[in-house]
Specification:
alpha/beta; 6-stranded parallel β-sheet
Length: about 350
């Protein structure tokens, strides 16, 4: 077998337990990432294989079979499922990567869990994620801040094996359209609309706080986006005037990037990497968790004309095709290293 070169085409298997339900609603991140990777000329193929909770054994067998057909296996979201997937991939000898997205590492959801059983489940998933740090070849985080939640005993393990994988927006899917057209298609009326993304329908999103803030704003209604199919999300973002994010916990909220890619003003509490995402912007800001203070901050900001043009000015840190460049470089390096090593075995 001839050693591969760093420029060799790479085939990638993406794995995630975040999949669409029967109504077509779910986390669209991996699907968009798959499409983006398939547009990269260095990728021969990128295939998404979902882990289905209802049929664990069959899913693991299917994932192990697919892994043998690809150069790299990349798991997204940690937890018990990711640990099981790593065990299923043990015999493949292919490079394995995992990217953590937030609560799988910091487990802040335990603070708002409704039952003791739910708290135990959250902690088990967190501990399983820590175990994955030991077992996966390369370990990624969607925000560098998440590394702070890794136990100190494991941080040494991350020094040469960790990477930051910034999430992005598919500019081919998220493109600006007339606000009136978007509202007409959704059956919305006039007036200022504050978008509130509550796809997961959890208390952690703090819809109650968003409602209090909105009630104090002039001529503003809260537009709750919940149970929406992935392909309809750009329509909702185009229809709104501002994004209101009030969560108790986040990793790196993609809804912020999606709104900035469509030149929308974003008002977020200090959660996850929101402050970092909004740094340097004139028309978006981090707001207080006190409703009255937040309302005053938003109204004052809305008095300024919109000048940011984030779609163009921030494209280098928003466009998923550009952001995937670094992870494709990593795929090539780990694939090259593994193939080169095998050629001398």
């Amino acid at each position: 077998m001839q050693p591969s070169t760093p420029n060799q085409l790479v085939s990638v298997l993406l794995i995630s337990n975040q999949v669409r339900n029967a109504e077509g609603v779910g986390n669209p991140i991996i699907e968009r990432m798959t499409r983006s990777l398939n547009r990269d000329k260095r990728i021969s193929t990128a295939h998404f294989e979902p882990f289905l909770k209802g049929n664990t054994v069959a899913s693991l067998r299917r994932i192990a079979k697919e892994a043998r057909r690809h150069d790299v296996a990349h798991v997204h979201f940690g937890g018990l499922y990711a640990l099981l997937v790593r065990l299923a991939l043990a015999g493949s000898r292919k490079p394995t990567l995992i990217t953590f997205h937030g609560t799988d590492i910091h487990a802040k959801a335990v603070q708002t869990a409704s039952s003791k059983l739910e708290k135990i489940k959250i902690r088990l998933n967190q501990w399983a994620s820590f175990a994955c740090i030991l077992l996966y070849g390369n370990v990624g985080f969607v925000a560098g801040e998440l590394k702070a939640y890794v136990p100190s005993l494991l941080r040494k393990r991350l020094k040469r094996r960790s990477f930051t994988q910034l999430l992005g927006v598919d500019y081919e899917t998220f493109f600006p359209m007339e606000q009136g057209d978007a509202r007409g298609r959704l059956g919305l009326g006039d007036g200022r609309l504050a978008l509130f993304s509550d796809i997961s329908r959890t208390n952690v999103k703090r819809r109650d706080l968003a409602e209090k803030i909105t009630s104090l704003l002039d001529n503003t209604r809260l537009l709750v986006m919940s149970g929406v199919k992935a392909e309809e999300t750009p329509l909702w973002v185009n229809a709104c005037d501002i994004l209101l994010l009030t969560s108790d916990e986040e990793g790196s909220p993609n809804i912020i990037r999606e709104c900035l890619a469509l030149n929308k003003r974003v008002f977020s509490v200090d959660v996850g990497d929101a402050r970092q995402q909004l740094h340097g912007l004139s028309n978006s800001m981090v707001i207080s968790r006190d409703p009255e203070t937040a309302a005053r901050q938003i109204e004052a900001s809305l008095q300024k004309p919109y000048t940011d043009n984030t779609r163009d000015c921030l494209r280098s840190r928003l466009d998923i095709d550009l952001l995937n460049n670094n992870v494709v470089n990593l795929y090539q390096r780990v694939s090259h290293h593994t193939t080169k090593h095998r050629s001398f075995v």
